[in-house]
Amino acid sequence: MAAAPLYRDASAPVEARVRDLLGRMTLREKAAQMAQIERTVASPRALAELGAGSVLNAGGSTPRERASPADWAAMVDGMQRLALASRLGVPILYGTDAVHGHNNVYGATVFPHNVGLGATRDAELVRRIGEATALEVRATGIHWTFAPCVAVCRDPRWGRCYESYSEDPEIVRSFTTIVSGLQGQPPADHPHGYPFLASVRKNVLACAKHFVGDGGTDKGLNEGNAICSYEDLEAIHMTPYPDCIAQGVATVMASYSKWNGEPLHSSRYLLTDVLKGKLGFKGFVISDWEGIDRLCEPKEPRGSDYRYCIAQSVNAGMDMIMIPHRFEKFLEDIVFLVEKGEIPMSRIDDAVERILRVKFISGVFEHPFSDQTLLGIVGCKEHRLLAREAVRKSLVLLKNGKDQKAPFLPLAKNPKRILVAGTHADDIGYQCGGWTIAWHGDSGKITVGTSILEAIQESLGVQTEVVYEKCPTEATIENGNFSYAVVVVGEVPYAEWTGDRTDLSIPFNGSELITHVASKIPTLVIVISGRPLVIESQVLDKIEALVAAWLPGSEGMGITDCLFGDQDFVGTLPVTWYRSVDQLPINAGDANYDPLFPVGYGLKMFQSDDDST
């Protein structure tokens, strides 16, 4: 019997295994490794015959409605069995957007979105969230998450603003600790830029995104154009990447956006010279969803146009293509381009080496299947308590009492009657925001969690009557005899371009609702949003207290932990709270910086306000 090939030897050095396997591959097999396909097209032919390198699920693409963790694991394991039946038996990497917890999976813990975590200023908390998320992702058999987003959002009109920790590059940089949470902490002597994974049981591959300038586009347009010098690109938008690379981040996703008119997906200078050269990144670069298709107009190129897209992108330094549907067309075209000399074989070999390197360090050759013993960890109590802590620390108290000498919070725990109102008081979907169960998020009881109303009811004594009306009637407000009102307003969930806005007033006539209630009842307003919204001075004057709760996720009890004084507010603004959209873009450090509330602002209930700045 012939000896097993070197690439199968777990004790051999990774680079020797990579070279051995690469040397055994045909051009078509190499090309297939460079392909990432959507789970709905991951057929036996695609995996076993053609040997696709990777599979992903789109946001909201699930094995079935309310699929259990076991359903997910069975699906991924089934695909893996097919991949292992291919000629060389190269396992797939399965990737998913677990961007605030394992957010595609029903019943998983949903953590606050990044903007809320930015308000905590707590890098260790974010590392622990990375650890918890990795365990929940691993439990479903998945190896890789497309996180963290390390965008530096300079304009709240951008539909992905909530995926950014802050407008301040140093604050964003401080939260790259999540990479070590997800992947594990590399040892001190780990080679710079080399991909790392600590444990196949506890950790998942991370992906720093979107390289680079995604948060700096003109007017905050999603997939737009960042117009700036290289110096500014480096000082603002590139700042978090060296830290991710130093922690051995395995993958980097290219941005849909352009830099000075050149799409990142075809920028050889930024992908190859800067990211792989200057920054020393040794993992692989992946495109965004249909990202290479966007290099051609119209958006659905046909025929030879698609070849142009592939050549432009791969020659620029793209290693894996998130196709995600027309796999066979991609294979045919990329093979044609190499045979015609349009893409050098050396570029293909470099791309596949990087992909195989990540596969070998990930342990997927030795441990291709899911670990059944982890299933119970998805949405477990310990992770929900961590999410609750994150919610509490993310809250920013913007106003407390019309007179500073008479603070309104903490709220009394035993009043006779209180009013809870607003579109967002009893809605888990709204509370979680985009990238939750569905790609753009949804409303209602979309997953397991505690709404703000439920948290208030839970926190108050039995002697308190809690009256809840989403939009209270005149009669309720006039004759209710309420001790106070809690009005919860905010944005409808959105993702990517569906969230681009030029009008940032509170949706559903939120300002009118607040004014209506606050003119008769002492009112606390809680804003649920992925960004600061316009709060007119007359509205701010009328209310007693204002809390920014961002997009807190599934654990509403974190909000009441602060409202009723069990814990103090510690959050501070990670982004500028502007007065009106006419001021945009407005960032700390601007010459005429005149916001409603500056970056770093946040009041406390129990300490002197000296340390609130």
Descriptive keywords:
613 residues; alpha/beta; 6-stranded mixed sheet; 21 helices; 17 strands; Glyco_hydro_3_N; hydrolase; glycosidase; hydrolase activity, acting on glycosyl bonds
Largest sheet: 6 strands, mixed
By DSSP, the count of extended strands is 17
Helices, by number, come to: 21
Helix content: 25-40%
Through-space gap between termini = 72 Å
Rounded to an integer, what's the Rg over CA atoms? 25 Å
Quaternary organisation of the protein chains = single chain
How are the strands of the largest sheet arranged? 12-17-16-15-13-14
Low-confidence stretches: none
Structural class: alpha/beta
Give the percentage of residues in beta strands: 5-15%
Mean pLDDT: 96
Shape: globular
Domain Glycoside hydrolase family 3 N-terminal: 26-358
Protein name: Beta-glucosidase
GO molecular function, one term: hydrolase activity, acting on glycosyl bonds
InterPro entries: Cellulose_Degrad_GH3, GH, Glyco_hydro_3_AS, Glyco_hydro_3_C, Glyco_hydro_3_C_sf, Glyco_hydro_3_N, Glyco_hydro_3_N_sf
